C-alpha cells in the first residue's frame, strides 16, 4: 500500500499484513487499529489495558511483528504518525472529507479484489449452501437484508437472521439440519456480542463462516474461516457502510458466476413474473 495516500488505520494495518496472529494478538492489533491516531503514544501497559490482555502479551505481539520489543514497535508507529503529519490535509469541509474517505475505502477494496480466485471460491461455497443463512444484527441488519433481497432472486433458499435472542441459535441449527453448509455474516462495529456468539454457534453446528467485516483484525476473525474486510467510514456521527455494501454485491456476483445457468433461469423466471404482475413502471 502506498503510505502517502493511506489513512492512519490502514498504515497500522499494513504492519500486520501477512503475519499469522493468535486470537490474543488479534485483539491487540484490533486495539491499535482502533486507536490509530494515538497508538504511537500509548505505553505497553495502556495498550494491554485497552485490549484486555496482559502486558507480556503486548511484548510478545511486538516480537511477532519482528521487533525487539514494544518500544521498537512504538517507534515504528511514531514514524507512521510523522508521515501523517507531513501529508497535506484534504481540501474541503468535513462532509467532503467524509465522502473522500469513502472513496479511499472503495479504492482499497478494489485493490483487495485483485485476487479473483479467493472471491470465486467464496461464491462457490455460498452458492452450494442450501439453505443460505445470512446474519446481520443491529447496524448490520440492513446490509444483510439488502444482500438477501437480491440473493433470493438467484438462490432458492436465503434465510435472513436479523433478530437476536435464543431463537437465533434455533434458526442456525435449523438451517444446518436443512442442509446449510455455510453462513454469510455481516459483522460491523460496534460488534454486538450476540453476533460473535452466533458465529461460535454456527461453527459448532458445522457451518463454514464467511464474515464481511471492517478490518482483517476485527473480532470476527476469531470465529470465521473466511474474513472479507471492507473498511467502515467513521468521519460522521454515524458510520458509513459504503465499502461493506459494495463487497456484499461483489460476493453476490461471485454466487451468480458460480451457477450461471441456474442464475439465468431464475432471473428470467422473475422477470416473466414481474412483467405479468406489472410490478415496475420501468
Per-chain topology:
Elements: H1 8-14, H2 23-34, H3 44-51, H4 55-64, H5 70-86, H6 94-112, H7 116-128, E1 132-136, H8 141-151, E2 158-161, H9 166-177, E3 182-187, H10 193-204, E4 208-213, E5 226-229, H11 242-258, H12 260-277
Parallel strand pairs: 1-2, 1-3, 3-4, 4-5
Molecular structure report:
This protein has helices at 8-14, 23-34, 44-51, 55-64, 70-86, 94-112, 116-128, 141-151, 166-177, 193-204, 242-258, 260-277; strands at 132-136, 158-161, 182-187, 208-213, 226-229. The protein is of the alpha/beta class. It has two domains: 3-88, Arc Repressor Mutant, subunit A (Orthogonal Bundle); 107-275, Rossmann fold. The longest helix has 19 residues, at 94-112. The protein is globular, with a radius of gyration of 21 Å.
The top-level CATH class of the largest domain is Alpha Beta
Q: Main sheet?
A: 5 strands, parallel
Low-pLDDT stretches are: 1-5
Sheet-strand content, in percent, reads: 5-15%
Indicate the mean pLDDT.
92
- Shape verdict: globular
- Summed up, the helix count is 12
Distance N to C terminus: 43 Å
| Overall number of strands | 5
CATH architecture assignment of the largest domain:
3-Layer(aba) Sandwich
Q: Please state the structural category.
A: alpha/beta
Helix content: 55-70%
CATH fold field value of the largest domain: Rossmann fold
CATH superfamily of the largest domain: Glucose-6-phosphate isomerase like protein, domain 1
> Helix and strand string, N-terminal first?
HHHHHHHEHEHEHEEHH
Strand order of the largest sheet: 2-1-3-4-5
Amino acid at each position: 500500500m502506498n503510505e502517502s495516500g493511506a489513512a492512519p488505520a490502514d498504515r497500522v494495518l499494513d504492519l500486520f499484513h501477512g503475519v499469522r496472529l493468535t486470537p490474543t494478538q488479534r485483539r491487540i492489533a484490533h486495539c491499535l487499529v482502533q486507536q490509530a491516531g494515538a497508538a504511537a503514544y500509548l505505553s505497553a501497559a495502556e495498550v494491554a489495558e485497552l485490549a484486555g490482555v496482559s502486558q507480556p502479551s503486548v511484548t510478545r505481539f511486538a516480537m511477532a511483528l519482528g521487533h525487539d520489543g514494544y518500544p521498537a514497535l512504538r517507534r515504528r508507529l511514531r514514524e507512521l504518525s510523522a508521515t501523517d503529519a507531513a501529508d497535506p490535509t484534504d481540501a474541503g469541509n468535513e462532509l467532503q472529507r467524509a465522502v473522500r474517505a469513502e472513496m479511499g475505502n472503495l479504492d482499497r477494496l478494489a485493490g483487495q479484489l485483485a485476487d479473483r480466485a479467493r472471491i470465486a471460491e467464496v461464491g462457490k461455497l455460498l452458492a452450494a449452501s442450501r439453505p443460505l443463512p445470512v446474519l446481520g444484527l443491529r447496524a448490520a441488519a440492513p446490509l444483510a437484508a439488502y444482500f438477501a433481497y437480491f440473493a433470493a432472486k438467484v438462490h432458492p433458499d436465503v434465510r435472513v437472521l436479523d433478530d437476536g435472542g435464543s431463537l437465533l441459535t434455533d434458526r442456525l441449527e435449523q438451517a444446518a439440519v436443512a442442509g446449510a453448509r455455510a453462513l454469510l455474516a455481516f459483522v460491523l462495529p460496534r460488534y454486538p456480542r450476540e453476533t460473535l456468539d452466533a458465529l461460535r454457534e454456527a461453527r459448532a453446528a458445522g457451518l463454514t463462516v464467511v464474515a464481511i467485516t471492517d478490518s482483517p483484525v476485527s473480532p470476527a476473525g476469531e470465529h470465521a474461516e473466511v474474513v472479507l474486510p471492507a473498511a467502515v467510514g467513521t468521519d460522521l456521527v454515524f458510520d458509513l457502510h459504503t465499502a461493506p455494501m459494495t463487497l456484499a454485491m461483489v460476493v453476490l456476483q461471485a454466487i451468480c458466476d458460480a451457477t450461471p445457468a441456474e442464475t439465468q433461469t431464475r432471473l428470467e423466471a422473475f422477470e416473466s413474473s414481474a412483467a405479468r404482475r406489472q410490478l415496475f413502471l420501468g
